[in-house]
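A brief tutorial aside. Many learners find it easier to grasp structure tokens once they have seen a single protein encoded end to end. The record that follows does exactly this for Cytochrome C. Read the sequence first, then the structure, and try to relate runs of similar tokens to stretches of the chain.
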Amino acid sequence: MVFVCGMVLAAPAWAQSDEGGDPVAGKERFYTCAGCHGIDGYANAYPTYHVPKIGGQHADYIVSALEAYRSGAREHSTMHAQASSLSDEDIQNIAAFLSQQKSD
């Protein structure tokens, strides 16, 4: 019984990445990002425009970039609008998801 309770209490930790976000929740929230950054997170959906490949990127970089777009410290109208709709938790989750993707 104690073992089962311990496993139930530990289960949420398994869903967390080393970066502190939940990659499963990040994958769900990433759907709006996929329109430009690609379905797999690392393919460029619109090759005519420079859209960075973000799959496999370090989580702290993703967090830093999204926070900078959200605050306006980093300028890009589309990214500012997208990042403004994200909570701190969303940003952590998306970063955890992307950091687990393979880079191209």
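Self-check: The radius of gyration is 15 Å. If you spotted this yourself, you are ready for the next section.
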